[in-house]
Design goal:
This protein has 440 residues and is α+β, with helices and mostly antiparallel strands. It contains twelve helices and twelve strands. Helix content is 50%, strand content 17%.
């Protein structure tokens, strides 16, 4: 978990490690690519051994030259050893094509030792052929063609007297067929590589846009409490489940004190983050001291005609005057608690509906005393406490032992960073310090 601190323990927002650390997927692909020659050669060597053993124990399979058969096995195993060495010595990967080149000779020996033209193991030549042809570059059509010619040339070199004209014609035709296979394989590999590169480019572009959206979202969170009256102490934290989340919190000064908002947009990701930015802006713009319902109503009206008309946002918006008088509206949120300095606590809830669903919101009034703390959270915080029906009460018990806003934010930061959470984790805490005596 990477933490971004916005101001001196004023607000914190964290994003998942995957958003800022190097991705594990490219590393996994690199390891897979490094071990691919070993896997390919293990298949070829295994089939070569099976062919040799089968020829030795199955009576209907002819063995015309046992030395050639086992010589092919030895070459295939030598290629397997070199492929294994490439895994431990990556610098040897430049010589990877030596392995399938040896396989062409090994298969040629196997073919010669098991009846030449009558050998049932000719199809094995397709394995090194596809291995080479699947690599990018048109030259990798020529290399397997040369290798195939070598496979067919091995019996001719070992027994030139056995060559007849009809066999020569058949070999030429077979080589042409294998060349066509190499060409098709290479073209399919080229098309797949182009699609992969295009997908990677699109992914990088999307990641760049998401990173920019995350920066914008972080910039929307308040980064200072210099304008907040000294009678109030404010702290907030946001841990998005993804790079961009749908939760937000906000605070800003008003004529008689300060206003505070915590919202939770339906959904996650960039779309939810955009809606969160719009709702935050609308609530701020329509701020009316002593009338929090006007801010929520204006935001709802703006959303009905905007891009988030089909989404809803739960929201808790409250305004605290310097004398402790607090007006608040709960728009379907239900996750705000008032912690009294004497140890009592109560939920600040209503039956009003979220923004995007409801049309009217009734304002409530509460008077805070010195040391009282208002805490509002998103439902992602409840997931840290089990996420079941008893989670709100477990969270309430947690608040009773973490009444200090700084301590509370630090504890939620620790909880959110210790487990994977599928929902955004957001908390806003405001403590009323009491009226400040005028300077003498």
């Amino acid at each position: 978990m990477t933490q971004y601190t916005l101001g001196p323990v004023i607000a914190r927002i964290s994003v998942p490690e995957a958003a800022t650390a190097p991705r594990a997927a490219p590393v996994a692909r690199w390891r897979l690519a490094r071990s691919a020659p070993l896997v390919n050669q293990a298949v070829i060597a295994g089939l070569t051994i099976v062919a040799a053993v089968s020829s030795a124990v199955v009576p209907v399979l002819a063995v015309t030259d046992a030395a050639s058969v086992w010589g092919g096995v030895v070459l295939a195993l030598a290629g397997l050893g070199f492929a294994a060495l490439m895994v431990w010595r990556p610098g040897l990967a430049r010589a990877e094509l030596l392995v399938p080149a040896v396989d062409f000779i090994a298969i040629g020996l196997l073919r010669f030792g098991t009846g030449d033209a009558r050998s049932p193991f000719l199809a094995a030549v397709l394995l090194p052929l596809v291995w080479i042809a699947a690599k990018p570059g048109r030259q990798h059509i020529v290399y397997p063609l040369v290798g195939t010619v070598i496979t067919f040339a091995v019996p001719i070199v070992l027994d030139p007297d056995d060559l007849i004209a009809s066999e020569m014609v058949r070999l030429v035709f077979v080589i042409l067929v294998f060349a066509a296979v190499a060409g098709v394989t290479n073209e399919l590999a080229r098309q797949a590589d182009l699609r992969l590169r295009f997908a990677q480019q699109r992914r990088r572009q999307a990641e760049s846009e998401i990173s920019e959206a995350a920066l914008v979202q972080r910039s929307l969170l308040p980064d200072s409490h210099d304008d907040i009256p000294v009678e109030l102490t404010t702290r907030g934290i946001c841990l998005p489940a993804r790079t961009v989340g749908g939760d937000f919190y906000d605070w800003y000064p008003t004529a008689h004190g300060a206003a505070f908002t915590l919202g939770d947009v339906m959904g996650k990701g960039v779309a939810a983050g955009m809606i969160a930015a719009v709702v935050r802006s609308l609530v701020r713009t329509a701020s009316s001291p002593g009338a929090p319902e006007a801010s929520i109503g204006s935001a709802a009206e703006g959303m009905r005609s905007g891009p988030g008309a089909d989404q809803f946002t739960t929201c808790f918006h409250f305004q605290i005057a310097r004398d402790g008088t607090t007006h608040w509206v709960d728009a379907g949120h239900g996750l705000s608690v008032l912690l009294r300095a004497d140890g009592d606590d109560e939920w600040l809830r209503s039956d009003d509906l979220p923004i995007g669903v409801g049309t009217e919101w009734a304002p409530r009034r509460t008077v805070l005393g010195p040391g009282d703390v208002v805490v509002s959270v998103s439902d992602g915080v409840l997931d840290l406490f089990g996420g079941d029906l008893d989670a709100p009460e477990r969270f309430r018990d947690f608040l009773r032992t973490h009444r200090d806003p700084d301590e509370l934010v630090a504890a939620v930061q620790e909880l959110g960073g210790s487990v994977d959470h599928e929902d955004d984790v957001t908390l806003l805490a405001v403590r009323y310090e009491g009226p400040v005596a005028p300077a003498a």
